[in-house]
Design goal:
Layout (H helix, E strand, L loop, with lengths): L2 H14 L6 H12 L9 H18 L1 H13 L4 H22 L1 H5 L6 H20 L9 H13 L7 H11 L4 H11 L1 H14 L9 H27 L3 H21 L1
């Protein structure tokens, strides 16, 4: 992997993990257009490092909320922090079940099939358009809505379906406050990311060579700092109801991917 590839992939991961345009879909497209055999699907180490970088940026942005979640979870008091913590756990259930039961089937989608990615980006575009037109409210996330948002997150395990786009759109369509929806969306994925990282570390499939140190480090910092900016930017855009910009973007990229796959 070259330094340029590491920087490009780090920026892609940092931006698309938070912006509703599908990080997995863009990384699949990058695999095809950069034509490299050492991109995330082939380099498990690089994938783990990039996801750790974006998870770390999320923890920094929401450090106060994370502290409240931990305090609420272990104090076992009937307060807002405790209920929020329980809702976070409920939201993770669908993705955990799907990830464990259908791991091989999911991995089959990550084979550079950009036609599928393009179609899923169009689905993401429709979700964002509907969410953008929904009226804003002051409603909090409930237990049932947390589970429904979790289902959206599980569906977004498919490349091309934006995780943040699907979860935020589902929350907004459930009439949950936009800013609260964005916060819940970004926080609910952090435990899953760390869980996946631990699983990959314990699998014994990770390999490291000294030549990988600098490219992997560059990719980490690119994803981390880009993620910090993208997270803050996304919260502001959701608050201002600007999701249709990303809907248009997904339509354009989706059609480009579809056309490219058909003329190959």
């Amino acid at each position: 992997m070259t330094y340029i590839e590491a920087i490009v992939l780090g920026i892609i991961q940092g931006l698309t993990e938070f912006l509703p345009v599908s990080s997995s879909g863009h990384l699949e497209l990058a695999k095809v257009f950069l034509a490299s055999e050492t991109l995330p699907k082939e380099s498990l180490l690089f994938t783990v490092v990039l996801h750790f970088a974006t998870a770390l940026s999320t923890l920094i942005i929401f450090r106060k909320e994370v502290a409240q979640i931990f305090s609420g979870l272990f104090e076992f008091r009937q307060n807002e922090a405790f209920h929020f913590s329980v809702k976070m756990i409920i939201s993770m259930i669908p993705a955990v079940i799907i990830g464990l039961l259908f791991e091989e089937q999911l991995e089959a989608f990550f084979n550079g099939d950009i036609l599928f990615v393009g179609c899923m980006l169009l689905v993401t575009a429709v979700l964002l358009l509907f969410a953008d037109k929904a009226k804003n409210t002051n409603k909090n996330t409930g237990y049932v809505s947390a589970f429904m948002i979790g289902i959206a997150q599980a569906i977004a395990m498919l490349p091309g379906i934006s995780r943040s786009g699907a979860t935020i759109s589902t929350a907004v369509l459930l009439k949950i406050d936009r800013v609260k929806a964005a916060r819940f969306s970004f926080l609910m994925v952090v435990p899953l990311i760390f869980g996946k990282i631990i699983k990959d570390l314990l699998s014994g499939d990770l390999s490291f060579e000294n030549s990988q140190l600098f490219p992997v480090s560059i990719g980490f910092f690119a994803a981390f700092f880009t993620g910090l900016l993208a997270c803050k930017w996304m919260i502001a855009l959701v608050k201002k109801s600007k999701l249709y910009y990303f809907s248009i973007y997904c339509v354009v990229v989706g059609f480009v991917a579809i056309v490219y796959s058909l003329i190959l």
